[in-house]
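Hey team,

Filing this mostly as a record. A colleague (T.K.) asked me to run one chain through the structure pipeline before their review meeting, and I want the input and output archived in the tracker in case anyone asks later how it was produced. No errors, nothing strange. Just documentation.

Input sequence:
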Amino acid sequence: MAPRADLLAWLLDSDPAIRWQVERDLLNEAPTVWAATRASIATKGFGARLLSLQDRDGQWAGGAFFPAEFDFVGPEAAEEGSQPWTATTWTLNSLREWGLDASVLRERRTAELLAENCRWEYEGRPYWDGEVDCCINAWTVANGVWLGMPVDELADWFVRHQLPDGGWNCEWIEGSTRSSFHSTLNSLKGLLAYEIATGGTDETRAARRSGEEFLLRRGLFRRLSTGEPLGPWVGRFAYPFRWRYNVLNAADYFREASLSYGK
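Output structure:
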């Protein structure tokens, strides 16, 4: 079914980060049309606003995952939604997902500045070395290959930390041995970005296929043991996805994998 004309008009009357995808995917415009819209992300709307907020040291909000002033011990730190999503990793994720040309950040020496100045809140590790969290490492891999950073060792990290059931869990460091839908999907996205950019290795490609099988065997939203839906969160479709899993988020991953590899 073709999109309604009024819906298309509404989508086109939007930020360039949205409009170029509508032109490409729904209207089948010539590449010259949607590419021109995509290029304007750096100078108009959401993208321009985030670029204007970059710190002189290459970071956003003074931190890797949390803003510099975030209170880790106050009562608000434990509240759902207390994360303000303004720090470096979340901003890079948004700019990459919106389609910003990486050359814009390369001209600013963003990757190099982050290597020099940005440290993870966990143990002060260098930014491009990653962390112990699957989701954080996946975003670091995806942002790293986008900006031309060598993240091969971090991509191999996923091979070493894949759980026996084929997926991943960010709480592995706490002893978890059962994979998480959230962690597995985010890990797959990072490995896919790495594979598209570099071709991957035999080991990372095999790890990605096993992670896909973990989700597919469960129909993207069911418990393997009972066949029952995981919970209402699998059908809560919202963007930005952040770290959360839902069926639309998973379908978007498989769409990209299919377009890239014809799977």
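Quick notes for T.K.: The chain has a mean pLDDT of 93. Residues 27 and 174 are 48 Å apart (CA to CA).
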